[in-house]
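Below is one record:
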Amino acid sequence: MTVQCLYQNDPKDAAAVLGQRNACRRAANKLGWLIQQERICDASEGTPLLLRPDVQELLRDVEQGRFQVLVVASAEVLQCPEGEWESLLAVLQKGRVRTFAAQRGCWLEPGGRRWQPLPRPDWTRLHKSACPAAVSP
């Protein structure tokens, strides 16, 4: 599968992007995915997630069918209200792009549903939280 990774820049924590990048690369490597593009998103004051420049570029790639999976470290690091995150997930899903949370090792879908990719992902030992097999909203 071809994937793109989205990281959130945090001016207060220079190492944040490096941690996100490591988590996403580790997950992609374990699952045998090819990382096509890595994007660093800046959270400008008051700029909605879907209007951020890097997310706009990502959405153009979705329209052109350039990748199948978006990998994020976790939904929480994107620093946006839940409604904006849900909107992004819905747009990605409509474009047939799945979203994978690298730190938890699970698929993310609109409505808060989470699905594990494998019966026993190795990274659950490395992180305190793991996604349940399925969570209904």
User: Anything to note?
Assistant: The first helix runs from residue 16 to 31.
